[in-house]
Amino acid sequence: MRNQLLEKLNEHRREIDTIDEHMLQLFEKRLAIIKKIADLKTRENLPIRDTNREAVILDNIAVKAEKLGLDPELVKRFFRSIIELSVEVEQKL
Questions:
Q1: Residue 78 pLDDT more than 80?
Q2: Fewer beta carbons within 10 Å, N or C terminal of the chain?
Q3: Domains of the chain by range and CATH?
Q4: CA-to-CA separations, 87 to 16, 60, 84, in angstroms, rounded
């Protein structure tokens, strides 16, 4: 019984590891696009932050999260972190 529990636990952990790997690959792609955006903003002398766009993104994400049965506030916190990291990357370029 205990072995079956550990086996199932490890199986779920491997699934999470796979998801984490996919998320890392997507984050790499996102950062590459952020660098392109930062270049355009620098060339056109645009501000790094666009708080209106950030609000729209978070509102849209909340709606989509709710449709998926997820806690919208939790998902917004997750995406807010991604946005903050994105801004940080842009500021360093």
A1: yes
A2: N
A3: 2-92 (1.20.59.10)
A4: 27, 19, 5
